[in-house]
Amino acid sequence: MKPLFAASTLSCVLALTACAHAAPSDQADANPETGDGARPGQPLSMRPGDEVTLPDRSRLRFVAVTADSRCKPGLQCIWAGDATLEFQWTGSDGTKTAVSLNTPAQPSKSAGAWTFELQALDFAEPPHATVRFQAK
Question: Full-prediction pTM beyond 0.90?
């Protein structure tokens, strides 16, 4: 009976150890709500109020969608419209820079060592923006 108990206990310990050391597998594991870090080049889904820490310890916060005249799904519109999103980039030294992205006119902008690109904005409430960032 002892060998069976010891083998079962060892299996459980090994399984828990493997889980504790597992690395995040994709960008969905970076959580803006808790300030987890993000990786350059990977899309990041953010809602207003979310903030993410970048590799250089600077931060990007999604402030708000300040204008949205896009044609909603299922409607027939004369033009596609556009949307303006406001972000705030805070450098590791505390300097703050407003970053305004507009689709389709100006979907990318730089702040600090990074270029931010708006890839998508859904119609959810609150809206989810998909942003990608790269080193300049």
Answer: no
- Six token digits for residue 41: 């080049």
Q: For the range 89-98, what are the long-range contacts, defined as Cβ-Cβ under 8 Å and sequence gap of 24 or more?
A: 89/58, 89/59, 89/60, 89/61, 89/114, 89/116, 90/58, 90/59, 90/60, 90/61, 91/58, 92/56, 92/57, 92/58
* Cα–Cα distance for residue pair 36/52, rounded to 1 Å: 6
> Is 29 strand, coil or helix?
helix
Give, as one character, the DSSP assignment of residue 72.
Answer: P
Task: Give me the pLDDT at residue 79, please.
Answer: 85
Segments in the chain below pLDDT 70: 1-37
**Burial classification of residue 117, based on how many CB atoms lie within 10 Å of its CB (0-12 exposed, 13-18 middle, 19 or more buried):** middle
Sheet holding 44-46, edge to edge: 44-46, 129-135, 114-121, 108-111
